Amino acid sequence: MQARGDRSVVRVALHACDHITYTGLAGYLEEDSRLSPAGTPEGDEQIRADVTVLAAETVTAETLRVLRGLAAQGTTGPFLLIVGSRWKADIALAVECGVRAVLWRRDTTREAFTRTLLDLREGAGALPPDLQGRLLDQVQRTYRDVLIPQELATERQLTMREADILRLISEGCDLAEIAEKLAYSERTVKNILYRMMGRLEVRNRAHAVSYAIRSGLI
Which pTM was predicted? Predict the structure, then answer.
């Protein structure tokens, strides 16, 4: 049996909307010695989870309310959401609530579940490409419609993601390599580049890299 203080084990708090899903995910935890249920507090002891898993068929504003309630306990760690089929909530608000990874239920194999939990324990995050795109679109709209009009940013500045992409281009990486390194889809990388080049009024990627280097942006 693993010791309670063993930091090599990821302690996982598990919440699911139905018994079948809960039983399946609990079985995954039992099959890997690197994972352990967070357990039940004994007496006044409060057990902190390294990661909290919430499984739901659809993510809505009510799901975010549940996440906030769990996070308020101060013992959850980052959240992994396992989603059945639909995402109806604000993705940026979900991130604000502590969501750091999402798996569609159809893609939730034992290997994917375990790998994601271990990655979250190390501070990583993982969103499906479609949700990545929605989040990036939202960040871009906030930048364009809120930060720039209020003079909290300028059109000639780069976001962290834009700077990372240009830096990798300057190092000779192609789009596929950039997508792999940043855990984006190639389409997302292309969209970021397209919007950035339009905003900076540069002709191509080489011009964008040159502009960013001359301006001290990368």
Answer: 0.64
